[in-house]
UniProtKB/TrEMBL annotation:
Reaction(s) catalysed by this chain's protein: beta-D-fructose 1,6-bisphosphate + H2O = beta-D-fructose 6-phosphate + phosphate
NCBIfam families: PRK09293.1-1, PRK09293.1-3
Residues where substrate binds: 118-121, 211, 244, 274
UniProt cofactor note: Binds 2 magnesium ions per subunit.
Domain Fructose-1-6-bisphosphatase class 1 C-terminal: 202-330
Example of a GO MF term: fructose 1,6-bisphosphate 1-phosphatase activity
Taxonomic source organism: Christiangramia antarctica
Protein name per UniProt: Fructose-1,6-bisphosphatase class 1
Residue sites binding Mg(2+) 2 per the record: 115, 118, 280
Chain positions recorded as Mg(2+) 1 binding sites: 92, 115, 117
CC cofactor: Mg(2+)
One Pfam family matching this protein: FBPase_C
Cell location: Cytoplasm
UniProt KW keywords: Carbohydrate metabolism, Cytoplasm, Hydrolase, Magnesium, Metal-binding
Amino acid sequence: MERHITLGEFIIENQKDFPYAKGELSALLSSIRLAGKVVNQQINKAGLAEILGKAGKENVQGESQAKLDVMANDVFVDTLRNRGEICGLASEELEDFLVFDDEIHKKAKYVVLIDPLDGSSNIDANITVGTIFSIYRRVSKEGSPATLEDFLQPGTKQVAAGYLIYGTSTILVYTTGKGVNGFTFDPGIGSFFLSHPAIIFPPKGITYSINEGNYVHFPDGIKKYIKWVQQFDEKENRPFTSRYTGSLVADFHRNMLFGGIFLYPEGTTAPKGKLRLLYEGNPMAFLAEQAGGKATDGFNRIMEIEPEELHQRVPFICGSKEMVEKAEEFL
Ligand code: AHM
Ligand code: MG
């Protein structure tokens, strides 16, 4: 039987890529893996455990929280707090970042930003959702509590980023800046196994993902681009195919495997787009670039944008490099 590499083995094996590392990043990735397993298990039995539906509260962005949003947030916060690898955490579900300031955490080098359950409006319909994470080295002094500056770093400073996709299988995809690898969870064994080594974004594809219901609100360039993808051109395989789930993780994952472009532009109802720079845009941009794809707000590389606030939104165009460059020509 072919021997499959577990995520744990892979993390340890690749630790040597970080000459300064003392294993904290590996331990942190292992904590994320553990939290992901717990969330996966909860999601799988959600219909039985009466944890579907709304929590009856809104998050800081004024969006109503699903019970599973709250559950996933608590699992990640508790799991990462219980271990000593980070000094602070920011989440889509929390207005302010959390400072873990007992002695062991204060000495930690890293901070984490997460969207604990992305696409959660889909969950009650049993459609794919995900968890997105982004990891930075702190800029504040080790030994002191984490500060806002630790979280407001441009995406180029990310040490690692990734997502869990809870789909037909559960897959953890991550990068530490040396390519992108995906690991499928085997629920019988309880481990993630390397199933998608060295993922490469096809340079172009025939799929576009956008919430076209917002068409009237889009800038002219985006409207023209949409008309262009729908135009007949046999040589270029147009019209392209439209695929949009309402879960960024799912749309991104499909496009990365098969080639495609995802767009969430600004519009009159969402002047800066909907997606959040720090825990949606940047981690996905890091993965996209590491796989040979591209991510832009239309004019700037996503990862070079200087963040100003924790829950900042950003127009987001991401996918196969040639497709993103074509879209930029229209803007
Ligand atoms: P969420 O983090 O609150 O789930 O919102 C982000 C999600 C993305 O996963 C998805 O791409 C987008 O919102 C869909 O938005 P819309 O319903 O406006 O098309
Ligand atoms: Mg989200």
